[in-house]
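To close the section, here is one more complete example, presented without commentary so you can practise reading it yourself. The ligand is aspartic acid.
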Amino acid sequence: MKKVVKFGGSSLADADQFKKVGKIIRSDPSRVYVVPSAPGKRFDTDTKVTDMLLKAYEIAIHGGDLDKQLSAIKARYDEIIQGLGLGLSLDEDFATIKKMMLENPYKDYCASRGEFLNAKVMAAYLGYEFIDAYEIIFFNEEGALNTYKTNRVMRERLAQVPKAVIPGFYGQAKDGKVETFSRGGSDVTGSIVAANSQADVYENWTDVSGFLVADPRVVNNPVSIHTITYKELRELSYMGASVLHEDAIFPIRSAGIPINIKNTNHPDDEGTWIVESTARKSNYTITGVAGKKGFCAVLVQKAMMNSEIGFCRKVLQAFEENGISIEHMPSGIDTMTVVVHKDEFLDKEQQVISAIHRLAEPDVVEIESGLALIAVVGRGMKSAHGTAAKVFTALEKANINIRMIDQGSSELNIITAVDEKDFEKAIRNIYNTFIHPGTGPVD
Ligand code: ASP
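Output:
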């Protein structure tokens, strides 16, 4: 058994958290590759080390007291090092970082140092080898992961090092500079390491016991998800459920390695399993419900549209010409609706409408705004009947008007659009219908 374990910033925010992590790793000899984030917040109003570094970068390019900022960052590490009783000194590393920030400051380098330093501390604490991600993760010219080179180099390296700490979040760009993933990207590093070490499990340790069926800011104390498939997770994360970086699924997906989301503060909780496929039924037909506000729908109507070849393409071309990405596209016999993000669309709405008229010659084009989308996601829907009826009944009973419905043929999700003002109430009622059936409508 071989496990890759990634620890998020809150799991490594101070020496006490480090001790919990050390205990977790030492309690299971199969936890051989460790991917740490930078130290996160110790309390609500605290600042993540990555944000402190980004501020240092701003100071480096615009002027200000760089020494003061770097000392504050160093103090975070020194506190951890002392709390763990380690004899490690980061003086030389900070001298190098300062020199770089003075001579050649650039954002990704600065942001990446949080993980670099934390991995050094972690390696010293565990007695594991430190492998710099710069040497084993590569990006191509477009800034995407160079999978071929990364896999080749990383596999070779890991084969020689049975236990190692590898900093998350960054790698090497095509031009030899340091390059980072987007924020939260240590999740992606962990996934790449898991794929390339042929791990049996990728454990992603954070400060919650896995995914919840609904957003706890909307639903009071939601139940957690035991098992979710990669596909379901994609749907829910797209709709705003965020525990894991969206791109973290791709590297391990093809290797079929399960991800186990675990809680550093409650290590005995089983957490959530993210798997390729499972025979395990979800406990409630639905796996999760999530949603987002801020959508507009462009309704295009034309008599006999269904028999006009190329009509949809022409409509879509109007969006493409204006660089607007499309989120959903439910269609009727003589209508099609294109759902877009309001933020992206507002500035260009008139250009898009005139382009639709020019290209597709429709009878009517109408815009509706203030829409929220809600996705009810669940692999169990395929084999259960009445799921859609339950969703719609929940909304009807709560007096919520459904503005649009879209169910993909995969039968993995049902998407409904409601007015933004009804968003939270809609989620709460859908949640209750499936998780606590029989409890009447709630506000
Ligand atoms: N430290 C980085 C961030 O705050 C990356 C990570 O934590 O995964 O986004």
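Once you have examined the tokens, check your reading against these statements. DSSP finds 14 helices and 16 strands in the chain. The domain at 3-275 is CATH 3.40.1160.10 (Carbamate kinase).
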